[in-house]
Every structure is written in structure tokens, then in C-alpha cells.
Amino acid sequence: MEGIYFYSFFWIIWMIATFFMKKTRQRTMLAAIALITIILSSVSLYIGSFCVTLSFLFLFFLSCYFTAKQTRRKLLYLVIAALTIAFAYTSFQLLVLFDPVWIWMDRTWMLAGMLFIICFLFYENIQSRLVCLIVGSCQGEILYSIISKRVAFSYIIGSFSFLDTISISAFCLLIWTLFEQIAVYVDGKKQIRGTRQP
């Protein structure tokens, strides 16, 4: 069932932000983003001849907002990373379309895993990884829809398949970041115990 990963991930994010995080501006913004994305996921509109979901537009413009806040040097690096993700996303989707024999497992998980690896290689902090993931994936989705249109293949930009892929990749990035923080915490505890010993 398409959309199950998307709904699960964003509802979890909303519940964590609402019930477990401290009452800060970041917590309110995170909860609002998760809730708005869920609400807009079932609404679509036509831009020219392209059908686009509002959740796609919301995530895309939100990621563009955070991208615009980067310095020139970081912005150039982000553009390179996002274009890499965009071309990888489009290439994988075209491979699924024209030569699906190479897809040996669920394509959503394969694509999400590929995007996770690329984001992991380009950035170290979770905020930059998530922005890069969303910007690059949205660009790849737009590029793939343009190519699909040229071969007379109707495609909804930002469908549940796209949202599932983004959700799985983001979830993997968050889990990896959690493991990194746990490792740093454990290492810090070991160093404190080592200094206390005579």
C-alpha cells in the first residue's frame, strides 16, 4: 500500500515533536511541518499539463527556503550535492521504467537506500542531509516527470511513492544520527571514567 511509510514516519515525527520535545520554536515548526505535509498529501493541482501534489510543493519550497539561507560557498556545494541526487533519482526511475529486470527487491527501498548513501557521503550533520535529500529528490522527481511526459506516460509529481521514498531515506538518516550520538555519549562516559581512575 503506497503511502504507508510516509504516513507512519510523519505521524511519528508529529507525535515526538508534540509530546516529547521541549516547548521551543523548533519544536512548533517541526510539528507544523509534519502536520501540514500530511494534510496536503491528498490534494493535487495542475500546473500546465503536470499534476502536482501540494505536499510536494510544500516540501520543495520549504527546502528551497533553507537552501537560500546558506552562504555562497555552502550553497555551491549544496547545488552539486542536490544535482547528484537528482540525476541518481531520475536514472533509477528510468531504469525501473525501461529495464525493471535489474530491480531485485522493492524499488522504494532500493531508491531510498541509494539516496541515503549519497546524502551520507556529502554531509555530516542531519540538517544539511535532510535539506539536500529533499531538494535533490524533488528536482529528480520534476526531471523524471518531464521525461515521462515526452514518452506519453502520465505521472503525478509528488505521489505517495515519492513521499514513501523520502520518508524511508529521512528515517534512515535520523536513525544513523541517533547511533552516532549514542556512540559519542558512550565514548564520553568512558573518557570520564578513565580520568577518575587513579
Description:
InterPro entries: YphA_Bacsu. The chain crosses the membrane at residues 6-21, 28-46, 52-68, 75-95, 101-123, 130-147, 153-179. Keywords: Membrane, Transmembrane, Transmembrane helix. This protein is mostly helical. The protein has one domain (4-184). The protein is built from seven helices and three strands. It has helices at residues 4-19, 25-40, 54-68, 72-98, 107-122, 126-150, 160-196; strands at 44-47, 50-53, 156-157. Strands 1-2-3 form a three-stranded mixed sheet. It is globular, with a radius of gyration of 19 Å. The mean pLDDT is 89.
Give a topology summary.
Elements: H1 4-19, H2 25-40, E1 44-47, E2 50-53, H3 54-68, H4 72-98, H5 107-122, H6 126-150, E3 156-157, H7 160-196
Parallel strand pairs: 2-3
Antiparallel strand pairs: 1-2
